[in-house]
Structure formats: C-alpha cells, structure tokens
C-alpha cells in the first residue's frame, strides 16, 4: 500500500462548507479526511482503530471555543507524536503562544490560503529528521516600514537597501529578487513608505496563491457576464491601485497569457478588463518580486523578455541569510526584543553558545525562518536567556563538530551571558566593551574616551582597574 493511501487526517470542525474545502485540499496531497464535530468525539476517536491510523489533526478553534488549548493538551497527552494544527479567526499572539505551549504544531489564521494550509500540513508531517522548530510559522509580529529597522551590516545587504532607498523616490518599475524569506515584502513596504506615493494605495497580489484561471480577472478586472460565473463587474488590482503601488509577489509564477496582458498594460499604461471594449488609463507603480532569477526564466523561454525588461527598470537582489552569518546575532537580538513585547512572552537574552549554533545553520527559509525558530524557542524557554539547549533539533541536525567558532570571537558583539543563561559580571562586560572600542578606533584613546562618553583620565583609570593594556595616546 502506498504512503499516500495510508495517511488519515482528523478534522475537528462543525462547519460543513469549511470541512468540505479542507477535505478537498487534503485529498490533493493524498490524505483521507475523518470529520468529527465536537471535542468529545475527537477524544473518543483516538482510541478507535481509525484513530490509531491518524497522521495529523486539524482543529478549528471555534469548536471548543475558550477550551481549545485544553483540548490540544488533552489530544497531545494521549498521542504525543501526532501533529496538531489549529485554525482560528484570532490573530492574537497570546493565543498563538498558549496553543503552542499546549502542543500545537502550527497556528493558522482564517481565512487561510490553500497553499499556506497545505504547506503547514506537509511540513508538520514530514518524515525527515526532527526539525519542527525550523518550519516557518505564521508570523505574529508586524513588519516594520523603515529602512533603518532592517538589520544587517553585510555589504551585499546594505547595498540592496541603499539601492532600494534611492529607487523609492522614483516612479519606475522595480524587480526584487531573492529566496523566500529574505525580506522582500519588508523591503517593498519600506520603499512604499519612503516614496512619493506613501499616502496612496498599496496592494500586494501573491501570484502563486491565485488560481490560474482567475489571475487575469484579479489583475485586470472583468465585466458582468464576461465568462460563466461572472455575475458582477469586478475592478482589477491595477485599476484599483491607480495613483498608488501594486506589488506582484511571485511574479515568476505568472502564466503566459497573463504575461502578455501585463506587458501590454505596462507599455500602454492602459488596462482593458476581460469582456470590455473600453480601456482605462492608469498611473500605477509596479514592484515585482521573484523567488527565482527572472533572467534565467527568460533564457529558458518561460518568461517574456519584454515583460522582464519592463519590470526590471531597477533590479534589486536580496542576499540569502547563509551569505550573511555575521548579521545573525544582531537579527536574533532584534527579533527577541520584539518577541518579548508580545502578550504572554517576556524579554529574553541569548547566549554566545546559542548564537554560534544559529550562525552554523544555513537557514534555507532565511530571515523568516530564523524569526520563527526564535519565536518557538522563546515560547518554551524557562530561563532569562536562550541557550543552545533551547534549540535541540538544530543541535541534533548540526552536531557539535560543525560549530567551530563563536560570533563574539569574530568581533560581532559583546558576550552578555554565561553558558548557563546568567548575566556576566558588569566589570567583565565593561572590560570587553573597552577592548572592543580600543580595537575599533585603532588605539586612538582620545576617540575611545569620546565615544564611550568618559574623560581620558577616567578611561586610563579603568584600564588599570580592569587590567587592560592600553595604547599610546592619539
């Protein structure tokens, strides 16, 4: 018997329409769905012959209501290895934290896209080595809109930000390329906020999440009766964003027919809805984002060259996180600061051992995956700082042999915590700061004192008290 026929999904849901939709989506991935309508039936099902064959559970929070987390905990206690995904209409970080602590594998806010639902189910039930904490979770923290808040000193990353900041002041099309999770959407929002169109409409259309037969209608609109099922007139995204900015995410997945219409619209600056004899003149700035180099797709004959030329007036490439490991400590501290502000969580530090572990991983999901990993670790951390022990799956995957250096030893930052998660002595931290300043300003003690906000005599006294060898005064 094949693996696809062995997988059984239990859906705890009392909404027939939603149950049919989820069952149909799961069937595409080879799942057979067992639907139960209430908590008692769900618990009882675990002890049946079918219950012993379950591969995953999807729980709609609406069924048990306020007792959803208690139900998750009960299901997890009876079947610890069974992945549980919770569907909810609430975007509350507190509920996300409570659900994860109760044992939920992932937390999905309705309406959830088919792709997001299936990715969560596929990720939760993968039969690879344990890596639950490395799967991308629904992001609970609002994205920043400021270039200054985008963390990183890597030259390639800074060059991309500088180019984006300069381009933001214009009106031409922009193509942003980079792997999933590298921060393309955050960059787009920062560009819009810094642009002359900042107070106008911004709309993001994810091409990959729109059905192929609907994409032209979504982008260009349609007239009533233009095709079977077109019961009303629909205004397309390009017309809707007239005067503003339209972001086409995953542009590499745009089907050929829609490529033709988009190329024509960008060239003529006019849009003709499906079924219409008239056109609308539009003023729209188009920012396209792609997970793959479009130039390669053009060379392969799957993407129109004239559309590529129209979109890439300015081209920006976001580097993957594995090419900027030196930025990981600053990113980790930045994320932990914001994670600590979420309801149900608290501020946490991170030890150098944990940072070394994080820097050793190659992060195929990039910055988004790092944020999700830190979020999950923070939910379950009992100490005051994350240590290497808070990332057990990561440690298992890497092994100690691959962690060869600490980010602190590479000059990235100052060690604040001991390996057991406690703060170091203040005089030890102060000594490290002074050593770092002396090295950074090449022994120019006047500059060191000025930057540290102390007098030269105070600096020399501290050098003696802390046993630090100074340099010749500059």
UniProtKB/TrEMBL annotation:
Keyword Phosphoprotein part of the UniProt annotation: yes
GO molecular function: ATP binding; sequence-specific DNA binding
Protein keywords: Activator, ATP-binding, Cytoplasm, DNA-binding, Nitrogen fixation, Nucleotide-binding, Phosphoprotein, Repressor, Transcription, Transcription regulation, Two-component regulatory system
Pfam families reported in the protein's UniProt record: AAA_lid_14, HTH_8, Response_reg, Sigma54_activat
Modified residues (4-aspartylphosphate): 60
GO biological process per UniProt: phosphorelay signal transduction system; regulation of DNA-templated transcription
Coiled-coil ranges per UniProt: none
Chief location category: cytoplasm
Positions of the Response regulatory domain: 8-125
Protein name per its UniProtKB record: DNA-binding transcriptional regulator NtrC
Organism ancestry: Bacteria, Pseudomonadati, Pseudomonadota, Alphaproteobacteria, Sphingomonadales
């Amino acid at each position: 018997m094949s693996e696809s026929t062995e997988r059984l999904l239990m859906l705890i849901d009392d909404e027939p329409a939603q149950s049919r939709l989820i069952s149909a989506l799961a069937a595409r991935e080879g799942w057979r769905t067992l639907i139960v309508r209430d908590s008692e039936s769900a618990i009882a099902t675990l002890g049946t012959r079918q219950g012993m064959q379950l591969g995953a559970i999807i729980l709609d929070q609406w069924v048990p209501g306020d007792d959803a987390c208690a139900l998750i905990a009960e299901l997890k206690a009876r079947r610890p290895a069974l992945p549980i995904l919770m569907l909810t209409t609430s975007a509350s970080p507190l509920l996300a934290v409570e659900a994860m602590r109760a044992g939920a594998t992932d937390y999905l806010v309705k309406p959830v896209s088919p792709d997001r639902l299936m990715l969560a189910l596929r990720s939760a039930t993968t039969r690879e080595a344990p890596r639950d904490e490395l799967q991308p979770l629904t992001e609970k923290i609002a994205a920043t809109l400021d270039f200054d808040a985008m963390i990183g000193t890597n030259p390639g990353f800074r060059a991309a930000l500088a180019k984006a900041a300069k381009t933001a002041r214009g009106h031409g099309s922009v193509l942003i390329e980079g792997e999933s999770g590298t921060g393309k959407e955050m960059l787009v929002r920062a560009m819009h906020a810094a642009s002359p169109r900042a107070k106008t409409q911004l709309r993001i259309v994810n091409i990959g999440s729109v059905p192929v037969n609907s994409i032209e209608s979504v982008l260009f609109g349609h007239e009533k009766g233009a095709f079977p099922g077109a019961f009303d007139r629909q205004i397309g995204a390009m017309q809707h964003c007239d005067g503003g900015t339209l972001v086409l995410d995953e542009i590499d997945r745009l089907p050929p027919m829609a490529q033709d219409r988009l190329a024509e619209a960008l060239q003529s600056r006019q849009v003709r809805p499906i079924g219409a004899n008239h056109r609308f003149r539009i003023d729209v700035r188009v920012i396209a984002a792609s997970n793959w180099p479009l130039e390669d797709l053009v060379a392969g004959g799957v993407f129109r060259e004239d559309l590529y030329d129209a979109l890439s007036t300015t081209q920006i490439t976001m580097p993957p996180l594995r090419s900027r490991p030196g930025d990981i400590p600053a990113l980790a501290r930045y994320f932990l600061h914001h994670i600590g502000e979420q309801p149900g969580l608290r501020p946490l530090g991170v030890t150098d051992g944990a940072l070394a572990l994080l820097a050793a991983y190659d992060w195929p999901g990039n910055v988004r995956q790092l944020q999700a990993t830190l979020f999950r670790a923070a939910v379950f951390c009992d100490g005051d700082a994350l240590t290497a022990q808070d990332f057990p799956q990561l440690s298992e995957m890497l092994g100690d042999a691959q962690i060869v250096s600490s980010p602190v030893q590479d000059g990235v930052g100052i060690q604040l915590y001991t390996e057991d998660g406690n703060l170091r002595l203040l005089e030890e931290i102060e000594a490290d700061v002074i050593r770092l300043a002396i090295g950074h300003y090449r022994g120019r003690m006047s500059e060191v004192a000025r930057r540290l906000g102390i007098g030269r005599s105070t600096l020399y006294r501290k050098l003696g008290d802390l046993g630090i060898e100074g340099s010749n005064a500059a």
